[in-house]
Amino acid sequence: MKVQPFLSSGQTIALFGGSFDPPHAGHRLVAEAALSTLGVDYIWWMVSPQNPLKTNAANELKARLSATRDLAKHAQFHVDAIEAELGTQYAIDTVRALKARHPDVRFIWLLGADNLSQMHQWKDWQSLMREIPVAVYPRGDDLRAALEAPAAMAFLEAQLPSDAASQLKTKAAPAWVLLEGELSPLSSTALRNRQAGK
How confident is the model at residue 6, as a pLDDT? Predict the structure, then answer.
């Protein structure tokens, strides 16, 4: 069993997964805000081989890993492609595999509000919400849509107030919180389109 060298018993780690195709300042904004408000030990940037909800093929994993590491230079950020090693494609499978591998570490799932809007399309999303506390960063044009999405509504009673974000790491799932923070206009899709001259 491989043990991640930055993990140790009793830590709390925020799992920040995505294609990061390409990574941008908005991603770093999310990670920095989560680090300061959640009080976690590390933000674990998990560069996924391929987002199952995206039809376009992601750029080469090695290149995305390198670009993400360049962006995420911070003592409390760790970047790797653990899902490629685990052979997992879906969040629920990744979370269960990591919890089994690191039973003495607490994990929080970190995502943008745009992903909360579509979480009901994820594999076993209800199980994911019951498996791991979730921190949501405000992203996208319509935060109301995210807060009225099926995942948010189904677990409305599990939502913590934003000013209690630091308590999320002590809560058993289901528990989630909407973080407060600056909105970024950047998106990987827009950056790819710009690079492609669209």
Answer: 87
Residue ranges of alpha helices (H) inside the chain are 25-38, 61-71, 82-86, 91-101, 113-118, 125-131, 143-147, 150-154, 188-195
Calculated CA dihedral for residues 96, 78, 180, 136, nearest 10 degrees: -20
Coil, helix or strand at residue 80: strand
Provide the pLDDT for residue 143: 86
Q: What is the number of domains present in the chain?
A: 1
The predicted-structure confidence for 52-67, as pLDDT tens digits, reads as follows 655 555 579 999 999 9
Peptide bond between residue 103 and the one before it cis (omega within 30 degrees of 0):
no
Residue 4 lies in a domain: no
18 closest CA partner among 49, 55, 60, 59: 49
Q: Tell me which residue range forms the domain holding 29.
A: 12-126+138-195
Provide the CATH number for the domain around residue 157: 3.40.50.620
Q: Are 15 and 95 in contact (CB under 8 A)?
A: yes
How far apart CA 142 and CA 135 sit, in angstroms, is 17
Q: What number of CA atoms fall less than 13 Å from residue 196's CA on the CB side? A: 10
> What are phi and psi for residue 34, nearest 5 degrees?
-65, -40
